[in-house]
Structures are given as structure tokens and as C-alpha cells.
Amino acid sequence: MNDPLDPLPSLNALRAFEAASRHLNFRLAAGELGVTQGAVAQHVRGLESSIGLVLFERRPRALVLTENGRSYAASVRRAFDLLVEATQALRPQPLQLTISVTPTFAAKWLIPRLQDFTAAHPEIDLRIIATDRLSHFQTDAIDLAVRYGQPPFGVGLNAECLFESVLVAVGSPRLANELRSSGAARFFARYPLLHDAHNQWPPFLQEVLKQSAAIGEKNIRFNQTSLAIDAAMAGQGIALAPFAFVGRAIAMGGLSRIFDVELRTGSGFYVVTPRRLRHPGPVAAVRGWLLKQGREQMCD
Q1: Mean pLDDT over each residue of the chain, to the nearest integer
Q2: CA pair distance 180, 41, nearest whole angstrom
Q3: Pairing outcome for strands 263-274 and 157-171
Q4: Hey, which of 106, 124, 154, 273 would disulfide with 130, CB 3.0 to 4.6 Å?
Q5: What residues does CATH 3.40.190.290 cover in the chain?
Q6: What is the distance between the alpha carbons of residues 233 and 173, in angstroms, rounded to a whole number?
């Protein structure tokens, strides 16, 4: 009895033919496959001999598929696609979890720590949605979120404190040196206050300077805390931000604290999850990693 696979050409010959059919050039096909040009040409000749058909017209400066060659190339390409799909189906795919965070939290806290997360949990494909819009766990397919404020955040939601919002005033090191030499009043008159959407400068100034009115009229307003922080690093004024978002920049010398005083807002950043989870184990792993990262700044 004949083996039904006997008429099947060699896989290397089929790969060489398929690559050459796309490039219409043996040299380029060889480069893709990591073999010599001569090896590709030999494989194609062997394939043509085994099936008894000419697949390419050899012209002086180009290859041209024959009609049989075009038909065969399309069928071979589909066969390779099926092999790729079958192989991928056997491989375990990373589990995708979706986390909703604010843009500033993503830029200033989460992204600098992501390398640690991927090293600890390579099996989890983390999808990060950075938006100020309050995402809905069910309709937006959110697995967990980091939200600012005070719990409770809604019916059927669990909240665990990641860190308290402790505000500090920061500026470039040059601005900090200027303050030490000129005094607070002249300093505030010279440099703008960089505001964000939370507008915490009035209570902070009252705490620092024991007065309710800001000194001077120079103000720049941003809708994102991260933009105010970036402007402060560029020497454009003084920003007010949670220490958790600027601590690394201070340690690396990109920012300096303008005053030693801190303002506790009574709010914090919380890891929020629905009580009914789609992927309990992986969500617990992400939640645990987040809380471990925020342990140094945990809420009281």
C-alpha cells in the first residue's frame, strides 16, 4: 500500500517557493529564510521537478509566476496560515486583565513600576486604560481600577487603600535655591503657581503662609496633575502634587521640595474591584502587587 504522504513535497521546498512567490526574487527569499540564494533556487527546481510543472518564468532581471505558479502559491500560503493558526492555538495565551487608572497615576506612578510587574507576572497581559472618565466595571469590561477619593465607591465594590494623598510643593532645583536666597514673598511674586484640576493651592498656602490669599497673580492652570509636574521640572513654576507622584523625581534630582510642610487632603488612591470577579486569581495577583508597591505610602 502506498503512503498517502509520498506525493507531498518537502516542507523546505514549499517554504522556499512561498517566499519566492511573494518576493519574485530568489535573493530576497533567501534573506528572509536565512539560507543562500542557490539553496532557494535548488529547492524551487526540485519542487517543479517533483510536481512536473513550471512555477516560475526565469527572465533576465525578474521572476514571474506562471498561471500554475500563482494558483499553487495561493494554496500553499493558505496551508502555511493554517499551520500557524494551529500552532498558536496550542500555545497558552497570556491572560489579559484590564485596569482603569487616571492619566497622572499611569504616567507618574504605574509606568515606572511596570517592569517589576511584568517580571513578577509574565503570564498576565495587563491592558491599561488611562482616563479621567469613571469607567464601569461591567460595560467597559474593567477588572480592577485605581480611583481617587474616599470610599465607598459604589454598591458591590471592594476598595483597599493604595496610598494617602499627601501634597507637597515642588519645583526645579534652581527654583528651590532661589527661594532660599530671596524669601517666600518675593519668590511667589516672581514664579507662577502651577494648578491642576483639584485646586489645592488655597488650603496649602494657608497652611504654609498662614493666609488664605495667594501671593502674586501669576498662575498657570492644567487639567492634569502630570502636566503641572512636568512644567515644574522644566522650571516654569511651582506645582502641588501627591508625594507618591514626585518622590522618584525628587530622589533623582529632577525636582526639589519647596517647603518642608505637607498637606494631608483626607483622600487617597484606592484599588477598587467588583465583588464578583471574572478572573479571581489573576486579579488577586495584580491587586497584591499594587498594594505591595504602595505599602510605603499606605493610608493610616
Answers
A1: 87
A2: 77
A3: antiparallel
A4: 106
A5: 94-300
A6: 9
| Residue 130 CB-density burial (10 A; 0-12 exposed, 13-18 middle, 19+ buried) | middle
The H or E element spanning position 184 is helix 184-190
Is residue 75 within 8 Å of residue 81, measured between CB atoms?
Answer: no
Contacts 24+ apart (CB under 8 A), 57-65: 62/24, 62/25, 63/20, 63/24, 63/25, 63/26, 64/24, 65/21, 65/24
At the topology level of CATH, where does 11-90 sit?
Answer: Arc Repressor Mutant, subunit A (1.10.10)
Strands 193-195 vs 157-171: parallel, antiparallel or unpaired: unpaired
Cβ–Cβ under 8 Å, residues 169 and 238: yes
Query: Please, where in the chain does CATH 1.10.10.10 lie?
Result: 11-90
Q: Write down the pTM of the prediction.
A: 0.67
Q: Is 168 exposed, middle or buried (0-12, 13-18, 19+ CB in 10 A)?
A: buried
**pLDDT digit string, tens, across residues 17-35:** 999 999 999 999 999 899 9
